[in-house]
Structures are given as structure tokens and as C-alpha cells.
Amino acid sequence: MEGIEIVFLWHAVASWTWDAQDETCGICRMAFDGCCPDCKLPGDDCPLIWGACNHAFHLHCILKWINSQTPQAHCPMCRREWQFKE
Amino acid sequence: MVDFSRVQKELQECNRDINVSGISVNPKSDNLTNLIGTIPGPIGTPYEGGTFKIDINLPDGYPFEPPKMKFATKVWHPNISSQSGAICLDILKDQWSPALTLKTALLSIQALLSAPEPDDPQDAVVAQQYLKDYQTFASTARYWTESFAKTSSLGVEEKVQKLVEMGFPEGLVRSTLEVVGGDENMALEKLCSG
């Protein structure tokens, strides 16, 4: 069969980024593409999470804040009562 | 455990635009939990021309707990203790948010210098004076700025001379000034307390 090329080797290159507006987490000040200070690797192990107010943080960072606030935590950015975005 | 990587970042960011803000934060010792902030007195207030030092102590929970801040420079203001330098400011207490930084906290303190809240005083004597006799308040505040917040511009020799004239031995004056990093008021306090 003529005209057919066979590919022997194929390098896949991909990049990813979290779809967040700010580039850094307002709590730890690390890049969203990086991870929180307690993690070693960015990605699924250190996810971002959005509040109902649309502010994003590292999940680990906002959990630390929520756990330090009783009974109700507020968004660190806008002070709205913190609720996870549905 | 204090998030030191964040503190380091904060120091870099704050000191980068020091020429614009006039606000600086520097470590007092190696461990980054004791820091010294400086804020210029706001223009058009009795604090104008002064440079105010703020003692900063980072609790273990920082940035989830507010930094502990108090004036190291004596200041005459309704919301700042004229005795201890303690500051009455909501963001340093229950209104703290981890999105705030040492710099934004210092900016808030600078704003407090511009806009006293005598109805929620830290120093009742100052607040009473502010409400009843503003002129006397303003001149006292100016005098305190002149006496305590401007001395850092003096050269070392001038500071030594001033303290020697107060009756302290020169050798002791020099060693004390060195210990407190050249701060004349802190040196005087140390000399007086023996």
C-alpha cells in the first residue's frame, strides 16, 4: 500500500492549569498551579476549591481556616459566610 | 506552626515597594517570628514626620491567627496605649482574615493614626482629651511624635551625647545602644531599668 506512513514514535505533550481567576491562593500566597505548603506535588492531591462567593483556595488551606473558626467561618477574601460551591 | 514560606514572601513583597509605601518589615532575630515594622506618620496629622516602630510577634497559627502587633515607639493616640503601645484594632483581633498580610495590617494601623476612634478607646485618658480638648490632644500628640518618633534620624554620636548628658556613663550608653540596635528610646528604657 502506497502513501501510508507509519508512526513509530509519538511524544505527547500536555499542560494543565486550574481554572481560577487569581493566580495565587489568598491564604498561603502560593501559586494555584503549585500546591499548598503542606503538600509536595500540585495536582489532584492538592485540589482547589471554590466558595459560594466564587473565591478559590487550596482545599487544604481553606479547611485549616474553617477548622480554626467557630462556629461559622467567613471567606478570607470577602467575609461572606463560607459555603462550598455546589 | 507558622507558615514561614509565606512570611518570607511577605517580607520580600513588602520591602519591594518600600519607596512608595514607606512601610517596611524586617526580622528582629533569625527565627522570623519576631519582626519589626515601621510606618511613617500620615501627612496632615500630628504624627506627620515621625517614623513609628511596631513590634510584631507571629503566633504559631499565623496566618490563621492574627499577628500580635504593638507600638514600640511611644505614641499619643486614643486607640493606642500610651503606656504599653497596645493597639485597639479589629483586624488584629476578631476581624482578622488570612488574606490579610503584615503589610496590610501595618497599612491599617497607619490609617488608624489618621482616623482615631475615641468612642472605642484603648487609652481612656487620651480619648477623653481628644473628645474634650482637641487642641491640647493635637499638641501633645505632636510633641510625642517630635520626642519619640524622630530620634532615629540622629547619628549614633548624637544619641550617645544625648544619653551621656542625661548622666549615664559613656561606655554603658554605647553598649546599650548596640544591644537595642541603635534605638535611643529603647536604650533609655534599658538604662533606666538598670
UniProtKB/TrEMBL annotation, chain A:
GO terms for molecular function: cullin family protein binding; ubiquitin protein ligase activity; zinc ion binding. InterPro entries: RING-box_E3_Ubiquitin_Ligase (IPR051031), RING-H2_APC11 (IPR024991), Znf_RING (IPR001841), Znf_RING/FYVE/PHD (IPR013083). The keyword Ribosomal protein does not apply. GO terms for biological process: anaphase-promoting complex-dependent catabolic process; cell division; positive regulation of mitotic metaphase/anaphase transition; protein ubiquitination; ubiquitin-dependent protein catabolic process. The keyword Nucleus applies. Pathway: Protein modification; protein ubiquitination. GO terms for cellular component: anaphase-promoting complex; nucleus. Residues 36-79 form the RING-type domain. Keywords: Cell cycle, Cell division, Metal-binding, Mitosis, Nucleus, Ubl conjugation pathway, Zinc, Zinc-finger. SUPFAM superfamilies: RING/U-box (SSF57850). Pfam families: zf-ANAPC11. It is found in: Nucleus. Its main location: nucleus. Belongs to the RING-box family. This is Anaphase-promoting complex subunit 11. It comes from Lactuca sativa (Garden lettuce).
Automatic annotation (TrEMBL), chain B:
Residues 155-194 form the UBA domain. GO terms for biological process: protein polyubiquitination. Keywords: ATP-binding, Nucleotide-binding, Transferase, Ubl conjugation pathway. It is an enzyme of class 2 (transferase). Its EC number is 2.3.2.23. Gene3D superfamilies: DNA helicase RuvA subunit, C-terminal domain (1.10.8.10), Ubiquitin Conjugating Enzyme (3.10.110.10). PROSITE patterns: UBA, UBC_1, UBC_2. The active site is at C88. Pfam families: UBA, UQ_con. GO terms for molecular function: ATP binding; ubiquitin conjugating enzyme activity. Residues 2-150 form the UBC core domain. One of its GO terms (cellular component) is nucleus. Belongs to the ubiquitin-conjugating enzyme family. This is E2 ubiquitin-conjugating enzyme. The lineage of its organism: Eukaryota, Viridiplantae, Streptophyta, Embryophyta, Tracheophyta.
